[in-house]
Design goal:
The protein has one domain (2-130): 2,3-Dihydroxybiphenyl 1,2-Dioxygenase, domain 1. Helix content is 24%, strand content 40%. It contains three helices and eight strands; from the N terminus they run βαβββαβαβββ. The protein has helices spanning 15-26, 64-72, 86-95; strands at residues 2-11, 32-36, 41-48, 51-58, 75-83, 106-107, 113-117, 126-130. Strands 2-3-4-1-5-8-7-6 form an eight-stranded mixed sheet. It is globular, with a radius of gyration of 15 Å.
Length: 131
């Protein structure tokens, strides 16, 4: 069902500042930037051996990422798992009693289909499924 980790997402107040720290400290560079207006975020990805680190910055103080940062501060926001046939995986998880926060997949980074699993299901950790 789960093929691996697609990315680990970190909520930040400034992509530029955080990306610079990843470059200075670890020699890692941003490879992709994107705005997702529907989610009110901009993001940048850093590839690290096939797993991406995704920096997400709110575009609006009312976005879910802005609320996350206000409540918890900057830090890990979610972990995204790679899946095939996301609808099939969603149905299987629902049968197992897992609460999925989206009725159906929506478009995420680079147009991938995504859905989120309630953090209450997995030790307070927001999980994204990414096809």
């Amino acid at each position: 069902m789960i093929e691996g980790i697609d990315h680990i997402s970190i909520a930040v107040t400034s992509i530029e500042r955080t990306a610079k720290l990843f470059e200075i400290y670890f020699g890692l560079r941003v490879e992709h930037k994107e705005r997702i207006e529907k989610q009110k975020i901009k993001l940048a990805t850093i590839n690290l051996g096939g797993v991406k680190i995704e920096l997400i910055e709110p575009l609006d103080k009312n976005s879910t990422v802005a609320k996350f940062i206000m409540k918890r501060g900057e830090g890990i926001h979610h972990i995204a798992f790679k899946v095939k046939k996301i609808e099939k995986v969603m149905n299987e998880l629902r049968k197992r009693g897992v609460k999925i926060l989206n009725r159906e997949p929506r478009k995420g980074m680079k147009g991938k289909k995504i859905v989120f699993i309630s953090p209450r299901n997995v030790a307070g950790t927001l999980i994204e499924l990414c096809e």
